[in-house]
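Lecture notes, part 5. Sequence design as translation. It can be helpful to think of inverse folding as translation between two languages: the language of shapes and the language of residues. The source text, in structure tokens, appears below.
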């Protein structure tokens, strides 16, 4: 007869501890194993979707690996409601869109994540090859609207590090209806005259953080739409492009407001605007409040500080009413550098809801080595310390 040694009884749980990590081992999925081809011409869409299906079905954390090389993808949607909340995608290669812009150009997005929770993307270069669609748009012909390169919708706990997006057809990255999104070390590059190629667009989302990112594009560097709250941007470099914009707001009568947005440590190089809030001149219950712009350097920026509540690009089909959007509690702190036009600070607010609680603290903007000008309409607030051009609040 044998008796179980007490020592073994003691060791059993320990033994289990050693074994258990392998039970919950990471599911690793290399897209090459599912038929992806790194040659830039074979369609790898199905292979990526196959790897995603397995990652999403896995009850343990999963990791998708995209090795070096160029992978051709059509429109692809990574649909969520997955069985785990830890899918990481590591991309050493480049994702390329088909040469013919019509293949992806009629869809909202090229690469879309929807209803996902706990997805991280490390690295990767996304090349949507948008130049031929821009040329079509700039020629005035009728063309597809174009696809956003990378979108996250109705998702949470998203982490994106070291991703590069070049030559998007439309917006490069869109965050819509999301919570807790962190983007770090993102690079966006598109030509300064490419239409609607916004770098990162955030709307109807809370807890989005964008850090250490460099955005060169033809439209807004970061655009912040209705319903963006608790948004933090730090160490952002913009230019060429249209700068960081809150808005356009007031597109609709009923619209979610923008609240608690911070831009800290940003540099704008040769952009059309620096830090801008814009709304259409029409009735709306929208608002923008508790906004902070801090430690900003302007280098030859056309409109460094601007609130434009008569926004109407190209002056075509302007609503020509009064903006209902209420802009309040906006702080500009330590904003310095050069303006490319004489009016460096321009507050053109709504006569119905004048801007209130504007705070200028340590603003030094020059125009051609001389004093710049400030212009105020329906704008109220206070200034502290050195403010050049002299505040008109
Ligand atoms: C404002 O947003 C930041 C994140 O950007 C968050 O940490 C902070 O708690 C928010 N403040 C309020 C009052 O919600």
């Amino acid at each position: 007869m044998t008796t179980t040694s007490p020592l073994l009884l003691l060791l059993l749980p320990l033994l289990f501890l050693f074994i258990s990590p392998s039970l919950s081992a990471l599911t690793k999925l290399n897209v090459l194993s599912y038929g992806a081809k790194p040659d830039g011409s074979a369609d790898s869409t199905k292979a990526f979707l196959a790897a995603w299906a397995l990652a999403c079905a896995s009850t343990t954390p999963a990791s998708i690996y995209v090795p070096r090389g160029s992978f051709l993808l059509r429109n692809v949607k990574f649909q969520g409601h997955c069985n785990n909340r830890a899918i990481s995608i590591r991309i050493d290669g480049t994702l390329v869109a088909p040469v013919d812009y019509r293949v992806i150009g009629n869809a909202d997005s090229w690469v879309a994540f929807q209803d996902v929770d706990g997805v991280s993307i490390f690295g990767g270069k996304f090349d949507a090859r948008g130049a031929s669609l821009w040329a079509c748009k700039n020629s005035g012909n009728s063309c597809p609207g174009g696809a956003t390169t990378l979108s996250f919708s109705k998702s949470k706990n998203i982490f994106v590090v070291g991703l590069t997006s070049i030559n998007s057809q439309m917006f490069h990255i869109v965050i819509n209806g999301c919570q807790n999104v962190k983007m770090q070390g993102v690079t966006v590059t598109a030509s300064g005259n490419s239409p609607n190629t916004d770098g990162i667009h955030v709307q109807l989302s809370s807890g989005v953080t964008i850090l250490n990112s460099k955005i060169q594009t033809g439209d807004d560097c970061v655009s912040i739409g209705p319903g963006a709250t608790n948004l933090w941007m730090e160490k952002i470099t913009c230019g060429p492009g249209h700068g960081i914009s809150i808005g356009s707001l007031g597109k609709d009568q009923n619209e979610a407001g923008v609240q608690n947005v911070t831009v800290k440590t940003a540099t704008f190089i040769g952009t059309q605007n620096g830090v801008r809030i814009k709304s259409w001149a029409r009735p709306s219950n929208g608002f923008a409040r508790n906004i902070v712009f801090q430690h900003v350097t302007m280098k030859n920026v056309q409109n460094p500080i601007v609130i434009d509540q008569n926004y109407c690009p190209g002056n075509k089909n302007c609503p020509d009413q009064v903006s209902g959007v209420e802009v309040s509690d906006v702080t500009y702190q330590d904003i310095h550098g050069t303006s490319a036009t004489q009016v460096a600070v321009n507050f053109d607010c709504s006569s119905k809801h004048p801007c209130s609680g504007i705070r200028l603290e340590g603003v030094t903007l020059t125009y051609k080595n001389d004093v710049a000008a400030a212009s105020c309409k329906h704008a109220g607030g206070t200034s502290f310390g050195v403010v050049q051009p002299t505040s008109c609040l």
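The translated text above is only one of many valid answers, since several sequences can fold into similar shapes. The domain at 220-393 is CATH 2.160.20.10 (Pectate Lyase C-like).
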